Each structure stands twice: as C-alpha cells, then as structure tokens.
Task: inverse folding
C-alpha cells in the first residue's frame, strides 16, 4: 500500500469509529476553520525580487535576506535594466541587502575599478495585499531604495526619471 492510501484508510477508520455527534462537531470545526482561513487570514504568498539600478556600474548580484535577486547592467541614461528572481518568502522587520558592484570592461581596464561587495540592513517596508514585488533600486553612491509594489517599474519611475538623460 502506498503512504497516501494507508493514511486515507486510517482516517476513514477513525471517522467510522467516531459517534455521530463527534462527526458533526469535527466537520463543523473543519468548515469554520477553512472559512476563517479563506476570508480573514492575510495571504501574501511568494514575492519576486526585482533589481534595478541608476549607477554607472553594473550590479552582478543582489539578494534580500539571503534570497537571490537578479543583476543589472550599468545605467545608460535611459534604461534601469533589472532582472526578476523568485518567488521567495520575504519576511521580518528588516531587509538585509547584499550586492556585488561590478565593473564594465573600460572601468576595469582604464579606470582601475574593481568589484566591491556591499551589505546594508534597512527597515522592511510595509507590504500591502497585492504587492508581490520586492523592488531594489540602486541609487548613486551605493544607496539602495527598497519598497513593495505591484509594479516596480511604475513605482520607481518618478525616482528613475530624475536620473534620466534628456536630450
């Protein structure tokens, strides 16, 4: 017998041994618990980590509380790049952001820049129902801006617009 079949047989035997009143109480409690879970419990589900940057250097990796995110290219004046990873369970009162600030070929060869590892712990932003994207926008001087959003692109657009080259 398979494990599932064995468990089903045990559950059926227990159900058959219960008196009628106990079956009604058990069934009612099960229905009430399922209804409570469906109607009143906060359900957030998994979250995607979306990494964007307005820095002139690429970000090779970024993570939130140990959950790996994507990478970005160096900001070209228009596109913030960015990749999506997940879904993850991102919880807690703080968000530990780890990232590797990389270099382009010219930055490495001509400017002598080298990759740099960074870590910062920020307060976890408040998450509302429907916000399934954890957005990380790397600002100049290695300052990450984090927030929950339904769409990181729309949420971060006003901030990104300040750094865009208009010509």
Result:
């Amino acid at each position: 017998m398979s494990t599932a079949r064995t468990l089903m047989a045990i559950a059926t035997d227990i159900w058959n041994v219960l008196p009628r009143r106990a079956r009604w109480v058990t069934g009612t409690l099960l229905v009430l618990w399922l209804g409570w879970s469906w109607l009143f419990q906060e359900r957030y589900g998994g979250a995607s980590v979306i990494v964007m940057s307005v820095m002139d250097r690429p970000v090779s990796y970024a993570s939130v509380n140990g959950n790996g995110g994507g990478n970005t290219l160096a900001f070209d004046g228009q596109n913030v790049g960015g990749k999506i990873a997940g879904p993850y369970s991102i919880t807690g009162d703080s968000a530990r952001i780890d990232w590797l600030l990389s270099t382009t070929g010219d930055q490495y060869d001509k400017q002598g820049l080298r990759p740099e590892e960074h870590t910062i712990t920020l307060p976890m932003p408040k998450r509302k129902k429907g916000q399934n994207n954890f957005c990380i926008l790397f600002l100049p001087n290695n300052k990450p801006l984090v927030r929950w959003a339904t769409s990181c692109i729309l949420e971060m657009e006003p901030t990104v617009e300040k750094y865009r080259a208009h010509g």
Q: What stands out?
A: The chain is about 30% helix and 30% strand. The chain has two domains: 3-39, 47-161. The two ends are 72 Å apart (CA to CA). The mean pLDDT is 88.
